[in-house]
Specification:
25% of the residues lie in helices and 26% in strands. By secondary structure, the chain is an alpha/beta fold.
Amino acid sequence: MRASLIQIAVNEGESVVSRRSRAADLVREQSGSDLVVLPELWTVGAFAYEQFETEAEPLDGPTYGVMAAAARDAGVWLHAGSFVERAGDGSLYNTALVLSPTGELAATYRKIHRFGFDQGEAVLMSAGESLTTVALPEQTLGLATCYDLRFPELFRGLVDAGATTLVVSAGWPARRRGHWTLLNRARAVEDQAYVLACGTAGTNGGVEQAGHSLVVDPWGEVLAEAGPAEEVLTVDLDPKKVAETREQFPALKDRRLQLGGA
């Protein structure tokens, strides 16, 4: 399976409409891939809190429409990152979309762990409540978003639900880039799964983004890593490696504590 991670730059000088169109063009350029991944809140910026309310859109809004067309044109499975969703009751959610190669909506995931310590996203957004997995022809994806990365119980729940590839879309700050690399490798090792971690470049809300999207194999080896600027990272994954790793080192079978969901 060939996966492409689009580490798009999210800067304050570019309009949402322009960035949405540019992201769609980047998706179309990955037509040789099976799976394409975009980062968290790339339409507005993960730290551009003042735009959350004004740029919120329904599930079937412009981001869905543009990304569905791009997935269909490229013929790829598309994890379209996340956007600010306005639900029917007016609540805002940090919602990820997965689209099929025909442009159909395959899954949504509302971010469970909101960042901000009682400010920013933590008070502007409502929390999701459900884990999400998506069955592809050769892999089952488990979805997580940014701050979720610090909560290993969420990822263990995804593995229990059948996930073999963990997809993390993020808008991670540059000042904590060391944690980004460490935690993604840890999630891969402890869950014996691929991790596809796609972040943003640029600066939004006055916060420089870490970039450094990476692909980690089930042994925790970094197969590829981007730099700090806008970049597309493309890696070929071996669908058999997860099962082989879990058979060679069957740590998951030795679990004794079952602590429930996320």
